[in-house]
Amino acid sequence: MIPFLPFQADSKKHLWILLAILILSSCLNFYNLNFPLHLHGDEPKKIGFIVNNVEDFRHPILMLQVARALNGIAGIADPEKLIVLCRSVSAFFGVVIVLLTYVLARKILAGGYALFAAFAVSVSPIMVVHAHYFKEDFIFTACSLFSLLCFLKFLKHRTFAWNTGWGLATGLAFSAQYKAVILGALYLAYPFIVGRVDKRWFYKSIGIGIGFAGLVFLAVNYSIFFRYEMFFEGVAHEASHLAGGHRLKIHGLSHGFSFHLFNSVVPGISWGLTLTALIGLTYTFRKWKSISDIEKIYFFYTVFFYFAQEAVPLKPFPDFMRYMIPLVPFLMIFSCRALPLMESWFKTVCRISPSRNLILPLMAILVFWPVYDSCLLNYHLTRDTRARVEEWAESSGKKVLFGRYTNTRTLNGDFRTILDVDIAAAKKSGVEYLCVSSFVYDRYLRGAKMSGQNPRVYRLHEKYVRLFSLPTIEIRPHHKSYAFSNPVIRIVDIRGWS
Fold it and tell me: How many Cβ atoms from other residues are within 10 Å of residue 5's Cβ?
């Protein structure tokens, strides 16, 4: 365990700091939940599921069940108000993730480092922004961390009670997202990861836990029994989606298994924390024979989840980065492994006294950008570029055809891209401008640089290049585009289209 003197002496101070971190996380997560429903492409469908008490089983329904239970108390009918309640589910579980990060970190780190890991998770842009979306990622991550915590307790105490607790927690994880199979693979591989385990006892015990997990899954997803055909259709759709990609096929091998590293992890936690996490992971691997079994589990959890997401071609624009959310707590934990190494390096290079403590300044430097970035992203959630587009359209008096993700009132789901519209016919009907969003066109501009895509990708790329050769007004975010928030909007004058 890495010592960290500033916070070890006073346990009460330690707990007060943890409470302050949780309060900060709550403030960041619950602030600005009231942006328009249609700014997020998946939320209108999920609100429909809650209101009409249906589901398509493309995801397990734990998140929907929690939201239904809350709305059973609140009794909200207005979709724009109901979505705020639903987003609060993600915001709450975001705080739970911060707390569980601390608890898991304390198993291998001293108190000060565990606090840093929890704080870094609470202020990371990928966590703060996604805590505002009614998606399955946060409830799944919280349940997965809780499952892992129960698993560690079970391994330590080897009691039926903890075995049952682990099974119940794992059942909740499977009830949140199908990607819990990655978590299951980690548990099954445990004896081979650490060695020195009675495999007969282990697999017999987790067999009991799996039984409890199955009961929880069936209890949460009980409507399977009444809509079993829809359940199998939803699972089949997700399997096909996973293998076929979403508009684009982005294979891990063709990107050196680094697509998520550069496009999800770095924007999600910052370059500084990414590099320290990589240093920490490398250090852990090099010290493999001397590290604890818990560190080995954390290491393989990170490896399993990262490479499983890289290996499949499914990386859906505009928000593929949410697939990295389950990794963030462990990336922060491993970044703490790098801090003493970095301190030692700085002291040697800069000839600083060995007795001088540089850990706190290093921590402050590493979290400065995530704090700054998260605050601005959070602030602009209710100041989206799409509202500015609508203001321009109203003030100009022009007839505008809005594409998908270009306004706050509808997703324009009747066409996949605005280029599926006959532009010449639209001109004849009086349309003067087309509005297109980077959340749609960016995938085709990037996809055209990749081989092996559907021919439609290359055709649409050519059409977008032609469209953007016309006079264009570009509305850019005041800070930046991120996940489902603040796309770049191009308002294209099509009066010269021929």
Answer: 11
Integer angstrom CA distances of residue 289 from 3, 195, 224, 292, 340: 20, 11, 46, 8, 20
Phi, psi of 248 (to 5 degrees): -110, 150
Q: Which helix (H) or strand (E) holds 437?
A: strand 433-437
Query: H or E element: which one contains 25?
Result: helix 11-30
Q: Kindly report, residue by residue over 27-41, the tens digit of the pLDDT.
A: 999 999 999 999 998
Q: Distance from CA of residue 388 to its chain's centroid?
A: 27
Residue 121 in contact with residue 97, Cβ under 8 Å?
A: yes
Q: 288 has which bridge partners? A: none
All residues at 6 or more sequence positions from 199 whose CB lies less than 8 Å from its CB, including other chains: 191
Q: How far is the C-alpha of 15 from the C-alpha of 20, rounded, in Å?
A: 9
Provide the token pair at 164.
């049952």
Q: Is 370 left (phi over 0), alpha (psi -120 to 50) or beta?
A: alpha
Q: What is the pLDDT of residues 207-254, one digit of tens each?
A: 999 999 999 999 999 999 988 888 899 889 888 888 888 889 999 998
Q: How far apart are CA 152 and CA 158, in angstroms?
A: 10
Q: What share of the chain is helix, strand, coil (3-state, %, to 5)?
A: 70, 5, 25
Residue of 428, 449, 440, 430 lying closest to 468 (CA atoms): 440
Amino acid identity, position 272: G
Is the pTM higher than 0.85? The answer reads yes
Which CA distances in Å does 22 have to 121, 253, 370, 463?
Answer: 11, 39, 17, 49
Nearest C-alpha neighbor of 115 from the set 15, 203, 256: 15
With H, G, I as helix, E, B as strand and everything else as coil, classify residue 491. Answer: strand
**Residue at 451: amino acid letter:** S
Closest CA to 175 of 150, 204, 149, 212: 212
Q: Distance between terminal CA atoms of the chain?
A: 69
